[in-house]
Design a protein that fits this description.
- The structure is a single chain.
- It contains 27 helices and 19 strands.
- By secondary structure, the chain is an alpha/beta fold.
- The chain folds into 4 domains: 212 residues, Serine Threonine Protein Phosphatase 5, Tetratricopeptide repeat (Alpha Horseshoe); 68 residues; 157 residues, Rossmann fold; 159 residues, Rossmann fold (3-Layer(aba) Sandwich).
- The strands form 5 sheets. The chain has a 7-stranded mixed beta sheet with strand order 9-8-12-13-14-18-19, with helices on both faces. The protein has a 5-stranded parallel beta sheet with strand order 4-3-5-6-7, sandwiched between helices. Strands 15-16-17 form a 3-stranded antiparallel beta sheet.
- Helix 24 links the parallel strand 13 and strand 14.
- 46% of the residues are buried.
Length: 664
């Protein structure tokens, strides 16, 4: 069988960019990459008549169709090829004819018809020498029809089974384009790196150039970070790191730029950019020392805790920048150290920060387990340590320089108990908590606070997170209530009216308690509330900050409507200070602030306030924090208690018709 080998012109990425630029079209690199094949731009494919065989077919009709396709006249080529098929051509010309016709149909955007001929080609000529070309076109056609997931298995088959290196290379390249279309950047780059191994030196250089162009002109910060994490010590991780350094330098985020430079130098000490990176780092360090005072943020900014640590850091950064925007007053710089307490050198690294940089205060760590060692070092250096998130109670026992701006279990329990027992007049409560440290501690503190208001705890039950049936716990709770205040009344179902079924209850239960406290996750609370209602425990529900999940109010059963929970931060609060903070934060970081961001913000703001009020040493900052009864916390005036925790105003939030609203 003689075969006309067809191939869409596989322009290299750089060639495509140059062609587009020559047409005067100002497109970003991302757009250029998205248009690398006609499958994405829905323009006719460029089909060449170069054969992949030594003996190409030479039929006049097929040659005419090839010329028309090369000239972009797809409709005319379709007419010629359909007429040729009507003449019942020899079988050894059919596979070429099907492929030519599919290419012409593809070029005229008749994708369904193109698929038909490609599938017919595969069915009738599975061993044809143009089968790889057909499969490539089939993958492109699926992508053009908006079904890239159908294209991937075809491309994977070519990459794994084909003996044609050119086809394998094109399959890898198309895979990269499809991943880019799906915004799976690291997988796109991975495909193109695989393409390099199948390419000549010149082709490999062009592919690297494409990746560099994409990184430099199209990736945002999150995409750059993903690439850097995927390739921490190799190309293109170096390019992503360099681009991150440039972004942070351009934004004036010196501490972030310094972090990136330090990581870059550690991973790429012999890189051509290393000398420039060292110069930039030296200039940033010199600039930092020109500030009169430094606040050190010592947080695990890489690793599994990085998302939370970076939220805290963003809050700290915003507070320091707001001080810089205010006219007059001393200058305050932010010194950031990515220190992980699990590292063997942690104590030496932290000691170096305290001794060499002499910050006026340190903000950190995240976890309670890391507080003792940091508190000891801060005490020796006479430098205040403010933890923004560690929920350890009574941090003052670790030293007179240790403070906490975290939302502790005790603060949550006290506020919700004061609301229920003090403001609503409830006296009898049940508690249903998850069997976790969070749940057990909140239950314990809530019971203690209720009793301090002369209230009574009727029953306490626990459940496993994710447990779907808590019927046994509710039955035990009901039994305890019936021993004291609950009422159980026998009724005749026939007197209730309507049709009677076996499911109709013969006993009506009336709870003797006023409310139930459920310090659990939003994912569990909705199901629990429905079961409580089923068991006739239709009392007000009280909760903790675990309820504050974006979709909870909207997706929970109506049985949760009216429930009230407590949290340290509520982004939709009408409080003017909160709204100003949320607006500034969103503008600065293009995302909404979290509780951790707010707690970091408050910690830094207190230190800045101390400096503006005249504190010039760690001792003076400590004295200011201890003595002030009205520190400017975001939610309102606050003060540090004798145990070192911040007594701040908390937010009471109610679930109301599928939304969260603040309780005045």
């Amino acid at each position: 069988m003689r075969v006309i080998g067809l191939a869409h012109q596989a322009y290299s990425p750089c060639q495509t960019v140059r062609i587009m630029a020559s047409c005067g079209r100002m497109l970003s690199v991302l757009c250029c990459v998205a248009l690398l094949t006609s499958a994405f731009s829905f323009t006719p494919p460029v089909v060449r008549a170069e054969s992949v065989k030594s003996a190409p077919a030479n039929h006049p009709a097929l040659n005419q169709a090839k010329r028309l396709i090369d000239q972009g006249q797809a409709e005319e080529a379709i007419t010629v090829l359909r007429r040729f098929l009507a003449t019942n051509p020899k079988p050894d010309l059919l596979d070429d004819t099907y492929l030519l016709l599919a290419a012409a149909l593809y070029g005229s955007q008749q994708y369904g018809e193109a698929l038909k001929y490609l599938q017919q080609l595969q069915a009738e000529f599975p061993n044809s020498e143009v089968i790889d070309r057909a499969r490539l076109l089939l993958a492109r056609t699926h992508a053009a029809m908006g079904n890239p997931d159908l294209a991937f298995p075809i491309l994977t088959g070519i990459r794994s089974l084909s003996q044609d290196e050119t086809a394998k290379r094109e399959a890898v390249h198309i895979s990269g384009e499809l991943y880019l279309q799906k915004k799976e950047y690291t997988r796109a780059i991975q495909a193109w790196l695989e393409e390099i191994s199948l390419s000549s030196d010149d082709q490999a250089d062009e592919i690297r150039g494409q990746i560099r162009g994409l990184i430099n002109e199209s990736f945002d910060k999150k995409a750059l970070e993903r690439v850097r994490e995927a390739y921490p010590k190799s190309f293109p991780g170096d390019q992503a790191s360099i681009r991150l350094i440039e972004l942070y330098m351009g934004r004036g985020e010196d501490h972030q730029a310094a972090r990136q430079i330090q990581q870059f130098l550690a991973h790429f000490p012999s890189h051509p950019y290393a000398a420039k990176a060292s110069e930039l780092l030296a200039s940033l360090q010199a600039k930092l020392k020109t500030n009169q005072f430094l606040i050190a943020a010592v947080l695990p900014l890489t690793g599994k805790l990085a998302p939370f640590a970076n939220d805290v850091l963003s809050g700290i950064q915003l507070a320091v920048e707001l001080n810089s925007d205010r006219t007059g007053g001393p200058s305050v710089g932010l010194l950031v150290r990515d220190l992980e307490s699990e590292r063997a050198s942690f104590m030496d690294d932290l000691n170096a920060v305290l001794a060499n940089d002499r910050p006026i205060a340190v903000i950190g760590p995240l976890l309670s387990k890391n507080l003792p060692v940091m508190a000891e070092l801060a005490e020796r250096a006479h430098i205040p340590l403010l933890t923004p998130t560690a929920t350890l109670p009574n941090v003052r026992r670790l030293g007179s320089y240790t403070f906490s701006t975290a939302l502790t279990y005790q603060l949550q329990a006290k506020r919700i108990a004061t609301y229920a027992a003090g403001e609503q007049g409830f006296r009898r409560f049940c508690i249903l908590h998850p069997d976790t440290t969070y749940g057990r501690e909140l239950a314990r503190w809530f019971a203690q606070e209720v009793r301090s208001h002369d209230g009574e705890i009727i029953a306490i039950e626990s459940y496993k997170e994710g447990e779907s049936d808590i019927g046994p716990q509710l039955k035990r709770m009901k039994a305890e209530d019936l021993k004291k205040y609950g009422l159980s009344v026998q009724v005749d179902p026939t007197k209730l009216g309507g049709r009677v079924t076996k499911m109709d209850k013969k006993v009506l239960y009336t709870p003797g308690f006023d409310a139930i406290f459920i310090p659990g996750r939003a994912a569990d609370v909705g199901l629990i509330a429905a079961q409580l209602n089923f068991h006739d425990m239709k009392v007000p529900f009280l909760g903790s900050n675990g309820w504050n999940a974006p979709d909870f109010a909207r997706t929970a059963d109506q049985s949760i409507d009216g429930a009230v929970f407590v949290d340290g931060f509520f982004a939709d609060s009408p409080n003017p200070n909160v709204q100003d903070f949320v607006e500034r934060y969103k503008k600065r970081f293009q995302t909404s602030p979290t509780l951790f961001a707010m707690q970091g913000y408050d910690a830094a703001k207190f230190v800045v306030e101390a400096i503006r009020k005249g504190a010039t040493s760690g001792e003076a900052v400590r004295d200011f924090l201890v003595s002030q009864p009205d520190l400017p916390a975001l939610g309102g005036p606050a003060a540090f208690l004798q145990d070192g925790t911040l007594n701040r105003p908390l937010f009471l939030i109610q679930v109301k018709r599928g939304r969260f609203t603040q309780v005045d």
